[in-house]
Specification:
Layout lengths: L4 H20 L4 H26 L10 H27 L5 H28 L1
Helix pairs in contact: 1-2, 3-4
């Protein structure tokens, strides 16, 4: 299996850090790890920049439909579980009927509003 030059250089960096750790001892371990992580951050930034530069100008990043559908499903489930739980809890409270109706209406209008704004926001984006 062929290795790319960047994965090879990452491996070389790691090997060099480990060798330096062996030579310098555990007292320098934190600074060696920080230095290695800084180099890896720079490598990641370089790769991201290359990929962004390779993309055509004005091209939006691809969004997976399954991720969007998964997010909608998760929000719907959380909304229903939270809304039903809150409705049951509020129903057992000692509120007057009119206050109870107002609080429940406010709760469900809020839940519906969050779900609708999420769906509309995702369509615009």
């Amino acid at each position: 299996m062929a290795r790319s030059s960047s994965s090879s250089s990452s491996g070389d960096e790691l090997r060099a850090s480990l060798a330096a750790r062996r030579e310098l001892g555990p007292d320098y371990e934190d600074s060696l790890v920080e230095g290695f992580l800084e180099k890896m951050d720079q490598e990641i930034d370089r790769r991201v920049d290359e990929r962004l530069a390779a993309r055509a100008p004005g091209q939006a990043p691809a969004v997976s439909p399954s991720v969007d559908a998964g997010q909608r499903l998760a929000l719907a489930i959380v909304s229903l579980v939270g809304g039903v739980s809150a409705t049951i809890g509020i129903g057992y409270s000692e509120m007057s009927q009119s206050l109870l109706a107002f609080v429940l209406t406010l709760l469900w209008v809020g839940i519906i509003g969050v779900n609708v704004s999420f769906v509309l926001g995702r369509r615009r984006g």
